[in-house]
Amino acid sequence: xxxxxxxxxxxxxxxxxxxxxxxxDEFARKFVGGRGFAxxxxxxxxxxxxDPLSPENMLIFATGPLTGFVIPNSGKMVVASKSxxxxxxxDGNLGTHASPNLRKAGLDAVVVTGKAQKPSYLLIENDTxxxxxxxxxxxxxxxxxxxxxxxxxGAASGALLIGPSGENMARIATVVSQEGRAGGRPGMxxxxxxKNLKALVIxxxxxxxxxxxxxxxxxxxxGFQDILVKDNYKFxxxxxxxxxxxxxxxxxxxPTWNFKEGVFDCAPDIDGNTMEEMTIxxxxxxxCNMICGNVIKDxxxxxxxxxxxxxxxxxxxxxxxxxxxxxxxxxxxxxxxLDTIGAGSCIAFAMEAAEKxxxxxxxxxxxxxxxxxxLEDMAYMRGLGATHGMGTKKAADKIRKGAxxxxxxxxxxxxxxxxxxxxxxxxxxxxxxxxxxxxxxxxVISWEISTGRREHxxxxxxxxxxxxxxxxxxxxxxxxxxxxxxxELGYELDYYPGYFEAATGVKTTLDEMWAxxxxxxxxxxxxxxxxxxxxxxxxMDYPPKRWFDEPLTKGVLKGERLYxxxxxxxxxxxxxxxxxxxxxxxxxxxxKKLKLEQEAAELEKYVKLS
Length: 610
What we know:
The protein has 610 residues and is an alpha+beta fold. The chain contains 26 helices and 17 strands. It has 3 domains: 7-203, 4-Layer Sandwich (Aldehyde Ferredoxin Oxidoreductase,  A, domain 1); 218-226 and 237-415, Orthogonal Bundle (Aldehyde Ferredoxin Oxidoreductase Protein, subunit A, domain 2); 428-603, Aldehyde Ferredoxin Oxidoreductase Protein, subunit A, domain 3. Helix 2 (34-45) runs parallel beside helix 22 (510-532).
């Protein structure tokens, strides 16, 4: 086996044991890596109905066969588990030096179960795997804990950590690395905290096993050069994702005041142009030459790494129009280990609930100090923070009194930073994302706006969502590599079958990669259906109520909203094209076509397949 190391590390924290396990060629070729490995392991090994915060839950860190090779943007890994935020499949990816280090330690994945008796961290140094005491790290924010671990284990090591929010099992806690890299929005940090696991520290020095190392090196060099000459490269280098603030403002899709509106009066004060004037440095992931992390000084003179999602969710969506203040809230989230998207949505939800006098909290739109206090309270799960740190769905379920009407989430995961009052394709993307309302699987909004939003619910929107899910959520999440060269600069997708063949020796095509994506999406959907058993319903694929019932009142799209019947028809088009029935469940024929016959037989123990 080339490309893959062919080994994963099993860690049982309850027993304090580690063991290396080989995996088969069939497993590798069928599920490839990253998200594919994660969902297959969870499907096969996790007992349905397991409490996500129990020792029995599995926490998986998975790379792919391209991770760590010197090719563009190969410094990613996937962290996955059963989500304590949604109750279904949850994952996220992050760029971190831990990714190539894990591969160079001779491993492709780490699977963690159990719960340590006391705060601990996992140390991986090539073939040495130790569970170590983390008493002196517990309670530290992620920055301080990582600095301490780097001091002890060397700057070349990679670290994956949780902050206080993960320790206190806030459901919107993520896994953090490198003072601003984060992944695992559906509560992966809470799962880590439930296991008394503060960190993974990884250092590897082995050679990666490519089938044709010379060919792969040449392809990688050509790929890096091609990125440098792309038309948008120089502008991207200046603003990264932050150019999206101005674009969304013009398109009337900028989340404002808990997604009530799509335009923000102070948008120019938090956009990419303003950020450019304030940028002091840039940060990126390993093996990236189009780095997207722009660092500014916040209100406290501290460094804060900004991108579009965190600026908008902690800016316009809560009414804060000062970029330094946004930077402070963002940096606090990274230190505390809170998901910036989820935190911004939870703060906005709390502000609206307070405005409607549904909760007794002294906070209002644009309240920077109130937002800071609520972030702390959510991270430490104290006071009303204990309610809002559970995520907007669980908070709304507790508050009741119509609060669910303005909880901006799908399946329990808060919406990313795109207002969809007149974007049914993007609304479908949120509705059918395999982890909840996330943009990473199918960011179709740019295509949708450029092709005309007035043609509301055409079937080609379902086609485009599936196309993007195959590319972004299937291929990139399994190889594992970053999608930015392709989606932002137009980097050719044809590179990836070539990289894959040179790394693994397995000849493949893009069509076969799309089939891989379909297999992964079907199995993730099967996981959800199995977990929710008789409670599964197609309405779980609906976007938030607000976009249907509360038209925009400002901007060029004033008066616009989504329509339920038309959305439902678009959703059915999506199901039909995927080979899923009208419940949104893959049919027997589809499962067979995707080589998931055994998984279909298992699923039929819980629900009758069409």
